[in-house]
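Researcher: Quick test of sequence recovery. Tokens follow.
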């Protein structure tokens, strides 16, 4: 074999190996993509209870509301309250008290930045406000 031809053969061999590698990586990516797609499809199945998940059943404090209060409110409405907050929202009973007297929904529905709007840093997503409103409408279930 002439040197130049030999080089060419070696070069083609390298290219073929690279192609194999690329095909291998692409099929891995496809497998991952397929796995992700099927996941997100099942996530999107809504049970129609308004909370955007597929747990089924009505909205409850334990399943749907506690985590919202915990991440958006307990920075101040802790026990004892901080940053000038007038009361704690650390238990089901405490949250229910404010839900029943109407102040909770009023406060989270106020326009971002207006006096008494909760949380003060900015309005919750509308879907979250709707979820809390629906929880109140459905009777403030705990679990
Ligand atoms: C950064 C601190 C802070 C966070 C976070 C916060 N609050 Fe408050 N909250 C306050 C303070 C201070 C007051 C009293 C002064 C006022 O009304 O602005 C208050 C008052 C309230 C009131 C009484 C309002 C009224 O008009 O009587 C309610 C109800 C309330 N907060 C609910 C919430 C809820 C629900 C969240 C979470 C979604 C929340 N707060 C998050 C600081 C906070």
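Model:
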């Amino acid at each position: 074999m002439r040197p130049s031809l030999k080089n060419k053969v070696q070069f083609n061999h390298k290219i073929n190996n690279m192609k194999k590698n690329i095909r291998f990586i692409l099929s891995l990516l496809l497998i991952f993509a397929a796995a992700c797609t099927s996941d997100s499809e099942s996530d999107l199945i809504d049970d129609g209870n308004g909370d955007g998940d597929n747990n089924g059943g009505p909205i409850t404090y334990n399943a749907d509301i506690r985590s919202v209060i915990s991440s958006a409110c307990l920075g101040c409405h802790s026990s004892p309250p901080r940053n000038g907050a007038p009361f704690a929202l650390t238990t089901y009973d405490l949250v229910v008290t404010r839900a029943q007297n109407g102040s909770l929904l009023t406060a989270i529905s106020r326009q971002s930045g207006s006096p008494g709007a909760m949380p003060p840093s900015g309005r919750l997503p509308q879907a979250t406000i709707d979820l809390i409103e629906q929880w109140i409408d459905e009777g403030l279930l705990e679990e």
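The helical segments are 3-44, 61-72, 92-100, 103-109, 126-137.
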